[in-house]
Amino acid sequence: MSIGMQGFLALLPIIVVAIFLVGLRWPASKAMPLSYITVVIVAYFVWGLSPAQIAGGSFNGIIVAVGLLYIIFGSILLLYTIMESGGLHQIRESLTGITGDRRVQVIIVAWLFGSFIEGASGFGTPAAVAAPLLLGLGFPAFAAVISTMIIQSTPVSFGAIGTPLRVGVGTGLGAGTDTSVNEFAASIGIPIVDGAGALDSAAYYDSFVAVFAQKTALIHFVGGLLIPLILVAFLTRLFGKNKSYSEGLAIWPFALFASVAMTIPYLIVNSISYELTSMLGGLSGLIIVVIAAKNGFLMPKEEWDFLDKKDWDPSWNGSIDIHYVEKPGGMSTLMAWTPYLGVAGLILFTRLIEPIKAWLNTIVITFPTIGGITPKFGFAYSPGTIFIVVSLLTFFVHGMKTDAYAKAWKTAGRTIVTASTALIFTVPMVQVFINSGGGSAGYLKMPYALAEATFALTGGLWPLFAPIIGGLGAFVAGSNTVSNMTFALFQFKTAQIIVENNSALAPMASIWPVWIVALQAIGGAAGNVICIHNVVAASAVVGFVGREGDVIRRTFMVFLYYALVPGAFGYAYLYWQSQGAFNLGTILLVLFYAAVIYIIATNKARLKKLNGEL
Question: pLDDT tens digit string along 324-338?
Answer without folding.
Answer: 788 877 888 889 889
